[in-house]
Specification:
The protein has 156 residues and is mainly beta. It contains one helix and eleven strands, in the order αβββββββββββ. A hairpin with a 5-residue loop joins strand 6 and strand 7. The N terminus is likely disordered.
Length: 156
């Protein structure tokens, strides 16, 4: 009788221990101490005049430089990609942040030494940007902030 009662308890303990071991295999990245970000865009963007738009393609990569797997979390799917286009003095010109971003928390795991890649395409309108002006794209991908310059040219 004791064996019948003890067997389900031992099985439950083994399952709970295995779940705790899996949960501890990766820790949540609370800072970007072991994360490095890379961003690539065209440095010279050609915009048609008269209010037309052009796309700026953005390639992103985050590398886990630490010795442990890391869990990256975002408060919602729409919060994984946030960007701002700013002047050289950091005055913002355009925002790519959804003001009503809500949803369930999302997460992903980057293995130790591994890289997570992503991309985006940002629509730029000639009414919002000045030809000849230098700008910076400040991009947050899974909370890792990256910054890169680009310049606007008139499409011939």
């Amino acid at each position: 009788m004791i064996r019948r009662l003890l067997a389900p308890c031992l099985l439950g303990l083994a399952v709970a221990t295995a779940a705790m071991t899996d949960a501890r295999a990766a820790r949540v990245a609370e800072t970007d101490e072991f994360l490095t970000g890379e961003i690539a865009v065209e440095r010279r963007i050609r915009l048609p005049q008269g209010g037309a738009s052009a796309r700026m393609h953005v390639d992103l990569a985050i590398t886990n430089t630490g010795a442990e797997d890391l869990i990256l979390r975002a408060p919602a799917e729409c919060a994984v990609h946030n960007w701002i286009i700013a002047l050289p003095n950091n005055d913002p010109v355009l925002y790519g942040v959804e003001p009503d971003c809500k949803g369930e928390t999302v997460e992903t795991v980057i293995e130790a030494g591994g890289t997570l890649k992503g991309g985006n395409s940002i629509m730029l309108r000639s009414n919002d940007l000045t030809v000849g002006q230098r700008y910076y794209l400040i991009y947050e991908f899974w909370g890792v902030r990256m910054r890169t310059p680009f310049q606007i040219f008139e499409d011939d």
